[in-house]
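Cross-posted from the bioinformatics board.
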Amino acid sequence: MAENGTNGPSGTNGGYVGTRTIRPDGLDKVTGRARFGADYNLPGQLIGRVLRSPHPHARIVRIDTSKAEALPGVKAVITRDDFADQSSEFIPAGEMLMNYKDVVRNVMAREKALYEGHAVAAVAATSAAIARRALKLIDVTYEVLPHVIDVVEAMRPDAPLLHDDLFTAGVEPKPEKPSNIAKRIEIVLGDIEAGFKKADVIVEREFKTAAVHQGYIEPHAALASVSEDGSTELWCCTQGHFIVRAHCARLLGLDIAKIRVTASEIGGGFGGKTVVYLEPLAIALSRKAKRPVKMVMSREEVFKSSGPTSGATVKVKMGATKDGKFVAGFAELKYQAGAFQGSPVQPGVMCAYAPYDMENVKVIGYDVVSNRPKVAAYRAPGAPISEYAVESVVDEIAKKLGLDPIELRMMNAAREGTKAAYGPKFGPIGLEETLNSIKKTEHWNTPLRKWQGRGVASGFWFNIGGETCASLTINEDGTVSLMVGTPDIGGLRAALTNIAADELGIPYEKVRPIIGDTGSLGFTFLTGGSRSAFSGSMAIVEAAKQIKAELCARACKLWEAKPDQVEFSNGAVRPLGELAEKIKPMTIADFAKVAGKTGGPIGGYGRINAQGAGPSLGTHLVDLEVDPETGRVTILRYTVAQDAGKALHPAYVEGQFQGGAVQGIGWALNEEYIYGADGKLQNAGFLDYRMPVASDVPMIDAIVVEVANPKHPYGVRGVGETPIVPPLGAIANAMEAATGIRFTELPMSPPKVLKALKERSAGGMGAISRPPL
Amino acid sequence: MRYEAPKSLQGAVALLAGATGETRVLAGGTDLLVQMRADVVDPDLIVDIKKIPETRAITEDRGGWRIGAAVTGAELKEHPRLKQAWPGVVEAANLIGSTQVQGRATLGGNLCNGSPAADSVPALIAAGALATLAGPDGARDLPVEDVMLGPRKLALRRGEIVVSFWLPPRPPRSSDAYLRFIPRTEMDIAVVGAGVSLTLDNAGTISAARVSLGAVAPKVLLVPEAAHAIVGTRLDVAAQQRLEAAARAACRPIDDKRGTTEFRVDVAAVLTRRAALIALDRARTS
């Protein structure tokens, strides 16, 4: 913890940025008053439910809804026939690409059901019980097809084919036959063959990771109300209500202006709430039934039908000189996309070697479809997988060369001026600072016992900016209404209020932040890419600038002064020079009182396309203990150091560091999508999808490093995603330190760990790098 | 759906015996309500037994303890003397779910849910507990190990309910312990569970023992061979090895999402030994 303070400076204006102000949304959250997705209700609302495919792969021959429609209390039934087809066109969606031809098929299966849980029909009825009964009356004729779940099997030429119009992009010449390989991508820097020739040590390994879910506590929920003229209101739990509006308008053929979307409070998203599932169905049902329709997913539906992130197979080959300089790095990534193309393999490829200054890099990636739910973004999409593999190999190189793993990373760290393999030259970045901070911790310097191990790993994520609106309105009493269009997931309102209060020189408590609906602001991209605090604060600085200019202009009129005779500082317009002797400064509240007489309401409106997001790098340090008789792993101690550029609100920056580490611990140790031979998910619930609970993790120490981002007025970098990148490698490295075994498959769950320990003690073929301590 | 909460055993038995359609008994509801919400069961009649005094009391009875089937885990934990006599039974019941679940979850429900992974059942079986049943033909006692026949299958007759459990008198130098394996620390279900109860003679030699294993067979097992392996010993290394071998031999687990067959057998042996050592340590100091 950097500081103990919990509150901003009281009695003085300004100086809130960098302090731990109380979050404006906190009270309602701890008292239960805050409204999450499922808390919205309307008079006369119907309950909507979805019929989902029991088959992982089946042609839908016929859907007969007549019996369901005839059931008293059923007011609407929808199927594929209620959605017009969409043409194939790739459009950027934050850090991923999307195609409405696929989106329309994912929200409601058309020709085929492509995974167990794929929506096939939906009903709206006067009660949940009637809706449930109606689902059982829908008669779907399936022609069951062979399925494929595993990414490597899906790539085989004889694998069951999901889409007969999918031809691998990125290979020349264009393949003659369709396959499940949607895309091949490649980045090259320098010449890896020449690089490997210079290497004294080469390590080559193959890794496997499981599909994991974001695991947000709040299931997807939506309430839609469509009036007779097509005007549509939608309340839903989302990371981006403007994006929901755009998707729904497109899928339902509505004008964007006809749809108003309000984002509820959100119980976690982590990227998984950047896409639509229930929203277009609720609108389509409401349009048909002419009544409001509420839909809430069960946890089982969340697991089976919303996007996890990819499982993958990754090959890594790295070479270093005996002094430890990395001279070549190769990687081949095969990522599951789920049923439709669009895995995060592109960022996985770009991030793989991004933490390091290397002359020769080649990374190849494959985007592969299989009969699983379509993946959605998950915190630094794609990066944890590729960087886990590289960080494991970096650790092995350190062991081979007898070098300290922090020193080895320091020697090769990307820094200002380094050309990244994915293209750009870095500006100021903080990897070295995070390595240095970790090295100085008491944690790094504390001895361990037998069966305990310590691991370290670094991580990189780009961060993004993008289209953002924010408004500041001066109310009649001088208080300020702050509005942004990005849902607040991790303390955004507190961070932005800190900035607004400082910019306007007023007390924090005089600013009330809200998340505006889509009718209240211009298009604002979603909360994702670690962009909301970065971009939102830039838009607020712009809005505040307009207010300050307006107040100065009004003061000039009132005081008959020239522009250079006034200035805005510390919450007031102040006369300068000789004017200062005659006239008293006017505060924002003074202007508010006379707003009507001086030109009307006062406000500022920032509308920007935020540029200059700075990458954030971090280094994690973990201690764990292995029970050699059961394979069970306990995380003993964990420290995160990460570059925040500038922490607008340190408590929520630390919260991001800790949350990412905990999700990474789950990913590394126990979380996985488990499929049976029947292609059905076997653990669609929190009992058997084993995310860590609070008592599984120690207090995670957070060290906030601040290497200012020169492109942001306060030096801010996004911080939300990087923290999930290093844990997988750090924990795998700690496992090696504790057991002498290099684990190359995630999760490192107890059965796998125990088996590896037994194989070693039996002198078997387990990958042994050295005997235990 | 009809919900009834009779205030007497006779009332409950009459409702259950006369019921048509799908019927479920409700104690804490931590399994039943979840199954109903998940669409696994859709009962026509629910008979809540919590209003029946006999199901809610912890009393001393014939030198032992009687625990009502609807007594919650939290109530067991807070009982001043029960935990001294039967620490393994209480700790097993307290492993179910979370703090919030502990306020509802019961021994009767845990047994009658019919899961081979139920945490409190191996501890009750190791303890030599009897289940007292009430039914249309009157009351009867069944050893707990005979109540469950297989997954979701019970030996209860039509109209019968579990009213309470009776734990026998405790000789001096006796104690018990229960351990389960989960990858997490709580909010999880046993991959393997092991309960051991034992009594020492004056010289510190094990004079009596019972060993039970959960989640390694279609029902919770009583493993007499494992008890036999340690009776007459002071649980020296050789006895521990025999105990592990007997535990291993008794396991007939499935390979599933929670663990492989090989893993379950290995861990069953380890947990049985560890539970026995804890029980031994407790018996020495009791």
